[in-house]
Amino acid sequence: MNPEISAVTDRIITRSRASRAGYLALIERERDTWIGRPSLGCANLAHAYAGTAEDRDAMKADGGMNIGIVTAYNDMLSAHAVYYRYPELMKVWAREVGATAQVAGGVPAMCDGVTQGYPGMELSLFSRDTIALSTVIALSHGTFEGAALLGICDKIVPGLLMGALRFGHLPMVLIPGGPMPTGLSNKEKAAVRERAAIGKADREELLEAEIGAYHGKGTCTFYGTANTNQMMMEVMGLHMPGSAFVNPGTKLRQELTRAAVHRVAGLGWRGDDYRPLGHCVDERAIVNAAVGLLATGGSTNHLLHVPAIARAAGIVIDWDDFDRLSRAVPLIARVYPNGSADVNAFEAAGGMPYVIRELIASGHLHGDIRTIGGDDLNAYARKPVIENDALAWQSVGDSGDDTILKPTTAPFSPDGGMRILSGNIGRACIKVSAVERDRWVIEAPARVFQDQLDVIEAFRRGELDRDVVVVVRFQGPRANGMPELHKLTPPLGVLQNRGYRVALVTDGRMSGASGKVPCAIHCSPEALPTSEGVGGAIGRIRDGDLIRVDAVAGTLEALVEVDEWANRQFATAPPPATGMGRELFGLFRSATDEAEKGASAVLAGAGL
Fold it and tell me: Where in this chain does the record put each Dihydroxy-acid/6-phosphogluconate dehydratase N-terminal domain (predicted)?
């Protein structure tokens, strides 16, 4: 192993020793005392079997695994619309190997692309906690010996895992649906957005461009949080190998899903290949998730999600671990917004099998982890194909396009392009893999806002036509649920294109597809004062303060005289927003912990 990867892994193992031991003891106890089908009362079982006449006799005989399907299907979200027929087909495929399957429950799946810039986005991050709770409820019936988790997009995969890991004694597989075919290129879409931001493209042209980009079933084709989720499930070994980026509606996609059902059916405790989820997701798998994120230029949202997933398995990873890993992990993929290619081109160039093979060979991934799809992670360095009308895996060759994928011996960058910033404003993260090197350091006067829509209005009035650090605060998890501020991408991009030196500083989130503008995000502590009246230092910033965002030195500073800074009053927080059901999430906002721990109310409430 690369010595820094080993050192960070050892650091996480040492830090997590007590909490991980407690977690493993929990799932062992759950396995030993599991209220499963043999011990359930007859009336309880009758209720469980009543809706499934075709499989009732097999369930009564209790000869094979009963697989609980937890589905995030809806037909408003393109990535999840593909799941419509999956449960029906999965039941047939379970019967092929002497198992049965039932839909245990559904989880909500909201689309950040629909809610961006609107009140619904303030529910987005906490939808992850809601999904975790819904997953727990789905699996709580005690009638399943394994589970299949159907989810893809931003909060859905982390939420499914957070909930499923509390049933870590069960074997589980995550089943993706794949990306939509390529439409209007991301570069063309971004150009129309920037033209619309300055009034040179009307609503009709903009809508046509957006529909041209987002045009069918499957994940969006840029490399944002949804597709980063799929990458992570591959490097953690929780998919069938190579299944992340196979398009929907193809024979290969169908056979991979069939194989996933067959596979999980053989991983139960009654057989000789018991692989419970809680043993698969260990410290090495969590490090693999972080390494994959950095090597591919993935979503900044995973600096929230990876710590939250880890905590659910008794593992503690912090931002310093990410910072150290980033300096050791080479960037070997360029996918939009870190390049011009989309995920379909990435897949055609070699995709995840190529990435995994390269990173195992260079000692950056733990190849010896326990996986769903093979003896170890080396099974994921092979590409799935249909051969003689059956599913097979083949060795992956050299990169099919070295503008998209490069070997670790000649990477796009020697490091992963993710930095942790610290200073008198607090701690924040910044993704620089798509930022030009001459913009890794920005020093400019602040313009402070408390709502992203006010930023857009100031831009339209020409008030930001200068070097500026745009500060948007009271966007943290306790203030308003930590929405993404993706609506700011076009205007900030326009300002940068005009030659100004521009950066964003916020205690909120940016899109998981954060691009060319330097953004110091997830600033912690957040601006909203605690019950003791202490707020994060971002609440001290005033218009005109000189702010330095330095991704080279790893600093985030307000260049204000020390005594003046220490004596400044915190800005007054706006009242909690109501409407769109946001008031119902007040308990989540009040209970959540800070961004670096994952910004989760349910994990904090559980004392994890």
Answer: 66-378
What single letter denotes the amino acid at residue 572? T
Residue that finishes a domain, picked among 362, 395, 428: 395
Question: What is the model's pLDDT at position 26?
Answer: 97
Instruction: Yes or no: say if 164 and 308 are a contact pair by the CB < 8 Å rule.
Output: no
Within a domain: residue 186? no
**Predicted pLDDT at 532:** 75
Q: Give the tokens for residue 519.
A: 């953004």
Residue ranges making up the domain that contains 122: 3-181+216-395
What sign does the dihedral 451-456-458-459 (CA atoms) show? positive
| DSSP alpha helix (H) spans, 362-485 | 452-460, 477-480
Q: How many domains does the chain have?
A: 2
Q: At what angle do helices 124-139 and 156-164 cross, to 10 degrees?
A: 40
How far apart are alpha carbons 135 and 37 in whole angstroms?
A: 19
Residue in the structure block whose two tokens are 């139960």: 268
Question: Is residue 206, in this structure, part of any structural domain at all?
Answer: no
Any binding-site annotation on 280? Answer: no
Alpha carbon distances (Å) from 3 to 321, 328, 362:
14, 9, 11
> Which residues, 6 or more positions from 44, have their beta carbon under 8 angstroms from its beta carbon?
none
H helices then E strands: how many in the chain?
25, 14
Is 429 known to sit in a ligand binding site? no
H helices present in 543-607, as ranges: 562-567, 586-591, 601-605
CA angle 224, 177, 401 (to 5 degrees): 55
Asked if 361 and 247 sit in the same domain, the reply is: yes
Question: How far does CA 469 lie from the centroid of its chain?
Answer: 27
Contact 304, 391 (CB under 8 A): no
Where in 109-215 does DSSP place strands (E)? 146-150, 172-175
CB 505 within 8 A of CB 428: yes
**Cα separation, 26 vs 605, whole angstroms:** 17
Same domain for 344 and 461: no
CB 210 within 8 A of CB 171: no
SS3 of 281-300: the string is CCHHHHHHHHHHHHHHCCCC
What H or E segment, with its residue span, contains residue 345? helix 343-349
Indicate whether 192 belongs to any domain. no
pLDDT in tens, 81-123: 999 999 999 999 999 999 999 999 999 999 988 998 889 999 9
| pLDDT at residue 338 tops 90 | no
Instruction: Give the residues across from 428 on adjacent strands.
Output: 421
Q: Is residue 408 part of a domain?
A: no
What number of other Cβ atoms are within 10 A of residue 46's Cβ? 12
- For the CA atoms of 452, 456, 457, 459, what is the dihedral angle to 10 degrees? 130
